[in-house]
Amino acid sequence: MNYKQKHPETCLAKCLLILLDKQKKIKTANNKELEILNFSLKYDRENIARGHLEKVVKDFKVKIEWYVDTKIFYDFIKKRQVSKEVRLHLQKINLKLIDELLQNPLVLYIDQFYLWKKEMGLYYKYHYPHFILLLSKKNNKYEIIDPNTGKNIWIDQKILSKAIIGLRNHLWFSPQLIQIR
């Protein structure tokens, strides 16, 4: 499976498809990434993440744990009646929670600014919400797949923590963790 996203807005779809491949050994067609995004855009105008999760549980018969960081976002999602296959949790997203849940890969919503490297060029040096896949932790580093590049990389826990805090405090988005059961 190619881990690079097809479109700038398909990072969550790509992460979910990688999770299905790695954790459940489910192979998907090349067009599934864009199909999930298109479904999500039509499903829920205010929150396309919910549409992504609903499409995945419907099409692949899996269950999902969805952790959200802020009460406002949690209450917003609760009012929209999430599928029973998606279990919603209100919990502070931080390294402690990640370490507790990382027996299996996790999708994490971050501020992508903190993943920027000089070789990417200045065009990509900006704050923007982005989903990545967390695979493992060794010492003080996390192994991730960044769907922007499609590559496995190791990042320091301080960088990951800043990316979570940046999403919450700079961009005013609720950090999220997603795990397939």
Note the gap between the termini.
Answer: 21 Å
Q: What's the main sheet like?
A: 7 strands, mixed
Please bin the fraction of helical residues: 25-40%
DSSP E strands, number: 7
Please compute the radius of gyration using only Cα atoms.
15 Å
Number of helices: 6
Q: Quick one: overall form?
A: globular
What order do the helices and strands follow?
A: HHHEHEHEEEEHE
Approximately what portion of the residues adopt beta-strand conformation? 15-25%
Q: What is the strand arrangement across the widest sheet? A: 2-1-7-3-4-5-6
Low-confidence stretches: none
Helix/strand class: alpha+beta
Rounded average pLDDT: 93
Question: Tags for this entry?
Answer:
181 residues; alpha+beta; seven-stranded mixed β-sheet; 6 helices
How would you describe what is shown here?
This protein has 181 residues and is an alpha+beta fold. The protein has helices at residues 11-24, 32-43, 48-60, 71-79, 95-101, 157-169; strands spanning 64-68, 86-90, 106-111, 129-138, 141-146, 151-156, 176-180. 38% of the residues lie in helices and 24% in strands. A 7-stranded mixed β-sheet has the order 2-1-7-3-4-5-6, sandwiched between helices. A hairpin with a 2-residue loop joins strand 4 and strand 5 (141-146).
